[in-house]
Each structure stands twice: as C-alpha cells, then as structure tokens.
Amino acid sequence: MKKSRKRSRAYYRHHRRRVIQRKNKIAKQLGWNERYAGKFAKGKVHCSCYYCRKKTKYLGLPKSDLVRMQRMDNLDDWV
Questions:
Q1: What is the mean pLDDT of each run of 10 residues along the chain (79 residues)?
Q2: Is residue 30 in some structural domain?
Q3: CA–CA distance, 28 with 61 (Å, rounded to integer)
C-alpha cells in the first residue's frame, strides 16, 4: 500500500484554479456569463467531447443498471 502524501495549500490552490479555468472556458463557449469565477469550483460543467458527454446514449446502460431494471421487472411479476 502506498504511503499517503501530505499536500500543501499551493497544491490545492493550483488544482482549484485549473478546474475553474477549464469550466470557465466551457461556459464562455456556451455563451454563459458568470459574475464570479469561483462558482465553478464545485458543480458539474460538461462539454460535448467524448470524455465529458453522457455515454449511455452511445454505449448503452451500464450492466449494473440493466440488472437493477431486470430485478424491478421481476418484482412486478410477484406482486
């Protein structure tokens, strides 16, 4: 097991700034205008690239969801 590292404030500031810049760029491309950039520190902003878009439309539902739906259908048969 790998020993955990202590991370400095600078590390967290760097990644927070990086995430905000990425989301801000996506928002500008979509025509959004946020007054405070810090709103992008939390929350989800997705672009339409392969890695960000919702994959269920292209790849189908995950196996766990298919099994869950099948079990729900089986429960309806019992009732």
A1: 81 94 87 86 72 68 83 74
A2: yes
A3: 31
